[in-house]
TrEMBL record:
Transmembrane segments: 39-61, 82-101, 107-126, 157-175, 403-431
Taxonomic classification: Bacteria, Bacillati, Actinomycetota, Actinomycetes, Streptosporangiales
Residue span(s) of domain Integral membrane bound transporter: 359-479
A matching Pfam family: FUSC_2
Identification of the protein by name: Membrane protein
Protein family according to the UniProt entry: Belongs to the YccS/YhfK family.
Highest taxon of the lineage: Bacteria
Topology in membrane: Multi-pass membrane protein
Primary location: membrane
Protein species of origin: Streptosporangium carneum
Length: 638
């Protein structure tokens, strides 16, 4: 079954424009069976318990609480998952309580929805946990105010929280036996991707490794930040990731010398990945001297990883991210919430659209108008990708899902048998989330239809009502939340590009200073900035062609900037293993040129011709900077 869906999704991706098949997030080629089973258990188990008690509708709220909490599970360290899922569950419970308390209060309900939209928008800017919590707060406020459930709001909120606790229990079921499983899996994935770099260092392979490395660092540090005292095993995982980064840079330095990586190192990296996965014992130390700076850099990096895997001492725990501390994190969150033009624009757009949807609901034009308001909340989410693409995908996915739901409602009689298709659609939700918003909507629409039918016994007519309300919600988003806002037509590719250039200049200025203790942090800031730039770019190209055509002109400049970063990292690797270092004057000239390019991009002017000092160790870096300037110039005129 998953293979069939995967094949269909691939066919659509080849035949359709980008905005129609925009991927929600980077995902593996196929879903794992446990997340699918976990989602099915989360949704169906409360319904089974209620069925055993003789009132299946009592399981609706626990099932909704479990589903919303389980949807917030995006993997990672157990601590990060608990925070993200717990925040989503608690926010959903609060949203339901508020919505249910103000249900049926006329225009006061509309004002409550607008207030919830503002709070949701501000919370969403605080990070991954805040994003899911903000969404669940708004979604459950809508559902609490729209669906009349039996029982007082307080009791129903407790039922919802029971479902939240059930989803958390399922997510943490493996923790007592394998407390470091997510961190270890992330490190293994990074080394598996690194192994493929030995066969070729194309742009896609490099981007895949950089993404895997960043995810592994985030996962390990998220877990280690809560550890009491030192944690030798997680420190070793960080050190292994540091060595993987050094191996990557050494491979690029081999390209500068026009050399192929030795077969021994390639085999050793494969054996390291297999040993980390428990498939074989650690490889034997290589102890081989290279005959050039690049081969020595590669041999040293691989040897260090082998020694760490064999139980060797961790010489240095160079952290690629700053430890902000509690006060620093609070200050960072406060800065995200209360500053930034994009935050203010998103808050205004969401409040306007939710107010309009609430006003239409009060006019009584739609039978179950909460679906319309719910569509607005789900589609108008900036960190989920293109609003235009999601609106179209939501409409098409809901159309397909309602057709499927209609068939199920006609074919399956009301009663225990309805739990079978509910379990199937719930299990398919994680797969839909991995692919794109439209496919997820195609699975979510029939699931929600069946859950609502347990309460209302509306039958096939529910599908028609759901489709009309969803299309109305998408229309509100496009007419009020997208078209009138020019900022929504433009992705901030230029500012992100300038930030990545500045990060590269900052790293280059200290890269050859061996006494500088923060070089690893500066290097990872460069690749983090490049990863953020790629994310913004990928979202932008899914916009309509009138927008995406302008954005795609940044692709050559992005490639040129990645070449500057890679040439710098490779030159540093060679300089640390016998190659002559560049002169400080030559380094300062390159740094000044990069800073000028960043400033000119921010000002919208063509970059000035770089004044670079002739210096043999920096020859490749100078060439890459000249290429960067040539690709960026011509895009802007003062």
């Amino acid at each position: 079954m998953p293979r069939l869906f995967r094949r269909a999704a691939g066919t659509l991706a080849d035949a359709a424009p980008g905005w129609l098949v925009e991927t929600v997030r980077v995902a593996p080629a196929a879903p794992q069976w446990w997340p699918m089973l976990r989602m099915a258990l989360a949704v169906v188990a409360p319904l089974l318990a209620a069925l055993a008690a003789g009132r299946i509708e009592l399981g609706l709220l626990p099932s909704m609480g479990a589903m919303g909490t389980a949807l917030a599970d995006r993997g990672g360290a157990y601590r990060a998952r608990i925070i993200r899922m717990g925040a989503a569950g608690l926010a959903g419970a609060l949203g339901y309580l508020v919505g249910a308390a103000f249900r049926g209060h006329g225009w006061m309900t509309v004002l409550v929805l607008v207030a919830a939209a503002v709070v949701s928008a501000l919370i969403s800017t605080t990070g991954a946990a805040g994003s899911t919590a903000g969404l669940q707060l708004l979604v459950m406020t809508v559902l609490g105010g729209g669906i009349p459930l039996p029982g007082p709001p307080g009791t129903n909120t407790v039922m919802f929280l029971i479902g939240v606790a059930w989803a958390l229990a399922l997510a943490l079921a493996d923790w007592p036996l394998h407390p470091r499983a997510p961190e270890e899996a992330a490190v293994i994935a990074a080394y598996r991707t690194l192994e493929r770099l030995f066969a070729g260092r194309g742009a896609d392979a490099m981007a895949a490794f950089d993404s895997a490395l960043r995810n592994a660092y985030d996962t390990v540090f998220s877990a280690r930040s809560a550890a009491a005292g030192t944690d030798p095993e997680r420190t070793r995982l960080v050190a292994l990731l540091n060595q993987a980064s050094l191996i990557r840079n050494a491979l690029i330095s081999l390209d500068l010398e026009d050399r192929a990586p030795p077969a021994e190192e390639a085999a050793a990296v494969g054996e390291i990945a297999a040993a980390l996965a428990g498939e074989r014992p650690p490889p034997a130390p290589l102890r081989r001297e290279g005959d050039s700076p690049a081969t020595r850099a590669l041999g040293s990096a691989v040897e260090g990883a082998v020694e760490l895997l064999s139980g060797g001492d961790v010489v240095a725990d160079q952290l690629p991210y700053e430890r902000l501390g509690r006060r620093g994190r609070i200050a960072e969150i406060w800065e995200r919430v209360w500053s930034g033009h994009l935050t203010r624009v998103y808050t205004a757009r969401l409040a306007l659209c939710m107010g309009a949807a609430g006003a239409v609901s009060e006019l009584g034009w739609f039978e179950r108008s909460y679906w319309m308001t719910l569509t607005v909340a789900l589609v108008l989410k900036p960190d989920f990708g293109s609003v235009f693409a999601r609106a179209v995908q939501r409409a098409l996915g809901t159309l397909a899902g309602t057709l499927i739901g209609t068939v199920v409602l006609v074919a399956v009689p009301y009663g225990p048998a309805i739990l079978v298709p509910i379990a199937v659609f719930a299990a398919l939700l994680p797969y839909g989330m991995q692919r794109n918003w439209g496919l997820m909507s195609a699975f979510q629409a029939p699931l929600v239809l069946l859950l609502v039918d347990l309460l209302t016994h509306g039958g096939p007519r529910l599908a028609e009502i759901r489709l009309v309300d969803t299309l109305a919600g998408c229309l509100i988003v496009l007419l009020l939340g997208y078209l009138p806002w020019p900022a929504s037509w433009e992705a901030p590719v230029g500012p992100r590009f300038a930030d990545a250039v500045s990060a590269t200049a900052n790293y280059l200025g200290h890269a050859f200073d061996r006494g500088h203790t923060g070089r690893a942090l500066l290097r990872h800031r460069v690749y983090d900035a490049l990863a953020d730039l790629r994310t913004v770019f990928q979202r932008a190209v899914t916009e309509p062609s009138v927008v995406s055509r302008r954005v795609t002109t940044w692709m050559p400049a992005m490639t040129a900037l990645e070449q500057v970063a890679d040439a710098t990292a490779a030159t540093v690797a060679r300089a640390e293993h016998g190659a002559p270092p560049p002169s400080p004057e030559a380094v300062r000239a390159v740094v000044a040129s990069l800073e000028d390019i960043a400033a000119d991009v921010r000002a919208g002017c063509p970059p000035r011709r770089p004044e670079l000092a002739e210096d043999e160790p920096l020859e490749r870096v100078n060439s890459a900077v000249r290429g960067l300037r040539d690709t960026v110039s011509g895009r802007h005129t003062c």
